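Intended use. Records like the one below are meant for learning the mapping from a protein sequence to its folded structure. Do not use them to infer anything beyond what is encoded.
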Amino acid sequence: MSEAGSTEVAETFEPMPFWHKGSVSNLLSLLTLLLGLTLVMSAGGGGMATWLVDLGPWIMAVGVFGFAGGITNWLAVKMLFDRVPGLYGSGVIPARFREIRATVKDLIMTHFFDEEYLQRFFDEHGQSMTGGSGGLTRKLQEVLESDEAGRAIEFEIEKLKEGPMGMMVRMAGTEMLKPLIQQFMGGLIQRLGPVAETKMREEAFDVAKLRGQVDKLLETKLEELTPEIVKRMMEQVMRKHLGWLIVWGNVFGGLIGLFSRAVAVQYGIEGVP
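Structure written out for the chain above:
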């Protein structure tokens, strides 16, 4: 793997910023907790409206449970992408990056570059699909971007979940693997499209040779995927969903806090936030 190649791939995927909806939501929950704690500690001190002091335990309950829910989900996300000292099982994605690379390659070669299918396809459409310089590349790119191709990729991923790599595929998830596969296939089309056009114009198309070229190119591109790059790719694909996971942890935690406080007041239970 060349250093330049790794750098080029790494620059494509930006690391997840510190300030996103999840961290903002956690901060708001923490501030709610501190506000409630301040009001509770001010009880009996005077100088503050009674109704506001009475709200203190309720606000603190929302803050405590909301912050606990959000920070727990944040830690779960952190453990998915990074190794956390002392926490067994953390850093799943970097630790399994070789299996992720192998799964991507197996999916592309087995289900999208099947030799029998390619031979039949080019026998039927080889004469009509080039359409001048760049025609084949454009048409293949259009096919890849179509809804039909998207559904086909999802279907093949679901089939892989039942195979030997099923556990790995289920862990990565369709939402992770689909854009990853589309991106790799798009790169392959741009690289191999012109080569295929030339071959189709000059001589009988050698499908086995094409598959060998695809396999070699794919192997080279996948070798550029270091654990850090795989982690960034997964983060970029899942960023929006991971942020909402933390936000909903704060929301549901806060609601549980309100319920807990209501039960404590109803039955006179002491010591419950």
